Every structure is written in structure tokens, then in C-alpha cells.
Amino acid sequence: FVSTAEAGDRSSVIGLYSNGSSRSTTESVTMTVNALDRTAGSWGFVGLMISAAPQAHNYVSGTTDSYTLRLNALGSGNFQFAVWRTVADGASYDLFTGTTQTFSLDDPYVLDIERNGAGEYEFFANNDLLYTTTAATSGADFYDATAKDSLLNYQIVIGGDGAMTATVDDYGVVAVPEPSSAALLGLGGIALILRRRK
Questions:
Q1: Is the pLDDT of residue 15 over 60?
Q2: Going by C-beta distance under 8 Å and a sequence separation of 6 or more, which residues neighbour residue 53?
Q3: CA separation for the pair 153, 54 (Å, rounded)
Q4: Cα 99 to Cα 130: distance, rounded to the nearest angstrom
Q5: What is the pLDDT of residues 36-89, one digit of tens each?
Q6: Are 182 and 191 in contact, with CB atoms under 8 Å apart?
Q7: How, if at all, do strands 44-51 and 2-3 pair?
């Protein structure tokens, strides 16, 4: 994926890939980022988005509700993880920003967005929990249960105000097997499907 937008024109910097289908409210989404580089501009990112409607992004106003798990490209091979929430009126909220890290081609980064038993979303990077959404009370993360249930579309997004590239792999839905299928798989098969958690 390549972003070559001109500086300052945030509305035209959107690169987007959608799989053309949707997931259930309990299916996880995943992707692996193998490379990330920003050579111009002051900001850029690649991310994994879940949203209420396809073809949407957190810099386009009047579109849809969404969460995005991002790798913010800081330049010089550095990046930081971030979780953003965006409402349909165009407002965006930075819910989590991690510390600066160095990207290594020998150590790709696996991003996962999962729904837990409490109905909240969890955001993982290489199996480390970065952020868990909260119940609709106050603050920046105030989606209610109905809004969270509506986030059935999943997409790859990339953007920036200058030249940036990203290489992405293993993108899609992680389905949990039905009980009857799990019985046929046995414990060994289940171990391959279930994700490790620290």
C-alpha cells in the first residue's frame, strides 16, 4: 500500500482496502504488518478498522462509526501503536497511544481486534493487550452496545500527508469453530485455532 498525498490535504490521503463482506459481532479480525516506512510529511499510518459501514475512514466526516488499531509511522523506522474511535459526524478520538518503537523487518507485527465476553472490544499487538473499550458512560469512548454490535465491516486503511508505504499480510476474519466442529478437531486442533493470551 502506498500513500503519496500532498501535505495538509487530509481529505485526499485515504488508501483503503475492504474485503467486500462482513463479519459476525463475535468474530475477530487480524492482519500482519511486515513493513512500514514514512519518507515525507509529518504524519502517516496503516491500520486495521472495524466499522458500521464499508468504505469509511476516520478522516472523512459524516460517514460511519468505527474503531481503528493503527501503527503510526514516526519516520526513521520508528512507530507507535494507537487506537482511535470515530463517530459518524466526523469527530475522532485518540483512545490509546503507545510508546515509540523501532520497526524490524525480522519481527512483523500482528494486529488483532477481538470482542470479549463482556461485549467490549480488545485491541492486541503481537498478543499484548493495548486497550479495552469501556461501557457507554462518559469520556472519549462512549459507544453503546448497539453501536458496538453494528461494527461488522473490516478494512485496511492507510493515510498520511506525505509519501508512505506499508506491506500487509494475513488479513481477514478469525472465526471461532462451532461446538460440533471443535469436537471433531480434538484438543490439538483447538490449540491451533485459539489465540495465546499473556
A1: no
A2: 63, 64, 153
A3: 6
A4: 11
A5: 888 887 888 888 989 888 765 555 555 678 899 999 888 778 889 999 987 776
A6: no
A7: unpaired
